[in-house]
Amino acid sequence: MSDDTSLIEATLRGDSSAFGRLVQKYQDRLYNTLVHLTGNHEDARDLAQEAFVQAFVKLDTFRRSSTFYTWLYRIAMNQTATHYRRKKTTASLDHVRQTTGREPVEANPGPHERLEQEERRGQVREALARLSDEHRTILVLREIEGCDYETIAGVLDVPVGTVRSRLYRARIQMHNQLKEILATEKK
After folding, report:
1. What is the DSSP letter of 140?
2. CATH C-level class of 1-95
3. Could you tell me the pLDDT band of residue 185, with boundaries at 50, 70 and 90?
4. What are the helix (H) ranges across 39-142?
């Protein structure tokens, strides 16, 4: 019996501290993924909290056909989709910078290199923000979170073949967005 399984069983028997251990185990990973998806620390924190609440409330419906984390991820993705359907706004690049802060830069790069790195990061963030939710989600799961195809399939509740084709289309769309951004900046 896995550690997650024993914690789930204990939670279902009424030991809420067992669920607290599941939260501690997965909260940082889920939060970081949601920051990448939303571009906003506050939204990510709220969505992660909502996902854990939903997981706790619906824990008795967890069928164990996937890992607990995959199931939790799916809940978080559904929460995120619902959140953005309600919100129906897109964050500007300035808003993303303001809410996410600066990324770490390489040790001791010169001012010119730092400026180029920041510009490239901004271009990637802008291109990612322009993608559809479906394509942004799959790129974040694969390229930023490093999930394998099977895990992504479990999270999104789609076949592995669908993951491969969506990822292919998402990469093409990302490439096209970056080309468009670079062409606009050259003008």
Report:
1. I
2. mainly alpha
3. confident
4. 41-57, 68-87, 93-100, 111-130, 133-139
Tokens representing 121?
Answer: 């990061």
Rg (CA), the chain: 19
Tokens linked to 60: 């008795």
Residues contacting 138, CB < 8 A, separation 6+? 152, 156, 163, 166, 167, 170
Q: Does the predicted model carry a pTM greater than 0.85?
A: no
CA distances from 20 to 11, 51, 109 (A): 9, 13, 42
- For residue 76, the tally of other CB atoms under 10 A from its CB is 25
∠ CA 125-126-129, nearest 5°, is: 85
- Would you state the CATH architecture of domain 102-187? Orthogonal Bundle (1.10)
Distances (CA, A) of 125 to 39, 95, 153, 174, 184: 9, 11, 24, 10, 15
Q: Provide the residue type at 105 as one letter.
A: V
**pLDDT tens per residue, range 95-122:** 545 555 654 344 456 677 777 777 887 7
